[in-house]
């Protein structure tokens, strides 16, 4: 196991020094970059490592507060980060666990590739096609607005839907079409500013995608 982990860290270091070729997706205050960052064999190894080692939150930390009521989140979640970091969203505060060696080297890789420093990663695990995340923006006040949020996906491919804030619901003032991305195993998605100020995103349930999916979002929390 040890040597395998060293190997994985070496692989991340090698990828750090490459130049990513990503596809730009833009629209009205939408700025995304998408592509494959981890070759399939590496993505398989990372997925396996995470499945074997990561313990997700239990108890109170598996709930969110919406309009004062607590709801169990329809997925599993855990966060890692620099010492003492916390992140508050949807009425809950999650404490970061200390970095593992592999997650820290993945964080460093993401930093090298994007030119931004990340101090926190939120990991979401979708156990099956029913698990999902509802429409939201990642625009909490303790997130550094100038840093892209970097999302790495592993396992089951799922659709990721982005909706313009002024094109949602009954009182919409614009009719901008949603953007749909199939997030592949080993892919990276950069949500660049100001995307998260304007656009909402979700990962809806999908019956035809029953496998486990793990998503890591690297974030910069203002300290
Ligand atoms: O699972 C994903 O691709 C997105 C997760 C997400 O939006 C979040 O954690 O804020
Ligand atoms: Fe999000």
From TrEMBL:
Subcellular location: Nucleus, Nucleolus; Nucleus, Nucleoplasm
Principal subcellular localization: nucleus
GO molecular function, one term: broad specificity oxidative DNA demethylase activity
Secretion signal, residue range per the UniProt entry: none
Superkingdom of origin organism: Eukaryota
Cellular component terms (Gene Ontology): nucleolus; nucleoplasm
Residues covered by the Fe2OG dioxygenase domain: 117-222
EC number(s) recorded for this UniProt protein: 1.14.11.33
GO biological process, one term: DNA alkylation repair
InterPro entries recorded: AlkB-like, AlkB-like_sf, ALKBH2, Oxoglu/Fe-dep_dioxygenase_dom
Names of required cofactors: Fe(2+)
Keywords, alphabetical: Dioxygenase, DNA damage, DNA repair, Iron, Magnesium, Metal-binding, Nucleus, Oxidoreductase
Residues that coordinate or bind substrate: 67-69, 87-89
Catalytic activity: a 1,N(6)-etheno-2'-deoxyadenosine in single-stranded DNA + 2-oxoglutarate + O2 + H2O = a 2'-deoxyadenosine in single-stranded DNA + glyoxal + succinate + CO2; an N(3)-methyl-2'-deoxycytidine in double-stranded DNA + 2-oxoglutarate + O2 = a 2'-deoxycytidine in double-stranded DNA + formaldehyde + succinate + CO2 + H(+); an N(1)-methyl-2'-deoxyadenosine in single-stranded DNA + 2-oxoglutarate + O2 = a 2'-deoxyadenosine in single-stranded DNA + formaldehyde + succinate + CO2 + H(+); an N(1)-methyl-2'-deoxyadenosine in double-stranded DNA + 2-oxoglutarate + O2 = a 2'-deoxyadenosine in double-stranded DNA + formaldehyde + succinate + CO2 + H(+)
Enzyme class, UniProt record, top EC level: oxidoreductase
Residues annotated as binding 2-oxoglutarate: 124, 126, 136, 201, 213, 217, 219
Record PANTHER family: ALPHA-KETOGLUTARATE-DEPENDENT DIOXYGENASE ALKB HOMOLOG 2 (PTHR31573), DNA OXIDATIVE DEMETHYLASE ALKBH2 (PTHR31573:SF1)
Subunit structure of this chain's protein: Interacts with PCNA homotrimer; this interaction is enhanced during the S-phase of the cell cycle. Interacts with nucleolar proteins NCL, UBTF and NPM1. Interacts with XRCC5-XRCC6 heterodimer.
Full protein name: DNA oxidative demethylase ALKBH2
Organism: Acanthoscelides obtectus
Lineage, opening ranks: Eukaryota, Metazoa, Ecdysozoa, Arthropoda, Hexapoda
